Amino acid sequence: MQGKLSSLYPQTRESKFCWYYKNGNLRQTINYRNNKIVGLIQNYDTTGKFEFEYIYDIDSLDNSKRFKQCINNFGYYVSKNLKYPKNSLMSEIEGKVLTQFFIDNTGNITKFSIVKSVNEELDNEARRVIYKYKRWEIPKYKGENTFFEIYFPVIFSLR
Asked: What pTM was computed for the model?
């Protein structure tokens, strides 16, 4: 990691911070002001080639109000369309599958990953229901379509 910390408050990030892969290539750049992320975050692949950039703060989106409503609708959709997998149900397995994905500049899900797994069956059901949702708002930042990162917990509970 490379960047500047405030001289008055050493824990406060100021300016551009860069993260690197173990091979020395650039992995990510983030701009900070008063320890808060500002603007777009740039991601690079393991060769150091630019991949994509995304906005971190939902309130920074031009269409943040509509995007927040879209996320609320998505949560409702997941709760109504989630199917408890048979084996997990019979074994009384519960838990939270934490997912991470991006809504890309065309309104589609990309770069989906499971951050915290419960088991393969519940992970697969979380993946299925998330990919089935097709009504994403296209994220916009400064008038341009962009990517937006989402962490979403899918909760499996027998109660």
From this structure: 0.85
